[in-house]
Amino acid sequence: MRARIEEDAKGRRQVIEACMEPCPIERGMRIVGGKWTGSILWHLKDDPVRFNDLARMIGGASKKMIAERLRQLEKQGLVTRKVRDTSPVSVEYAITDFGRTALGFLDELRKWSEDLPTLEENHA
Q1: What domains appear along the chain, each with residue ranges and CATH number?
Q2: Whether the predicted model's global pTM rises above the 0.90 cut
Q3: CB 39 within 8 A of CB 54
Q4: For residues 93 and 72, is the Cβ–Cβ distance under 8 A?
Q5: Taking Cα atoms as reference points, which of 78, 3, 2 lies closest to residue 34?
Q6: pLDDT digits (tens, 9 = 90+) for 66-114
Q7: Among 53, 62, 74, which Cα is nearest to 35's?
Q8: 11: left (phi over 0), alpha (psi -120 to 50) or beta
Q9: Coil, strand or helix at 95
């Protein structure tokens, strides 16, 4: 289904097959479009990562924000949380098989963004 605009005989415009809320793009963006979400999934792609190490990997994000995103991702089935019985206790996160399904388009987004001109180039 693809939304489009059509005019009737009197020139009035109307939307045909409008995206109903939420459309598939919106649903996907609600999951992975949150700030730091893509970065978290990307950093978990190879191996499980301890919380503090993940926080160090994602510069600019507060631990509170990372913890919040991880809770959301866990609730959505994209990551798992494992408490390690070490001294001191550590918490480790891993990407799930379902979470791995997002890595393909995240890699495409990474490639696309690497090709973007910088802000300085846009204003030259």
Answers
A1: 21-112 (1.10.10.10)
A2: no
A3: no
A4: no
A5: 78
A6: 999 999 999 999 999 999 988 888 999 999 999 999 999 999 988 888 8
A7: 62
A8: left
A9: strand
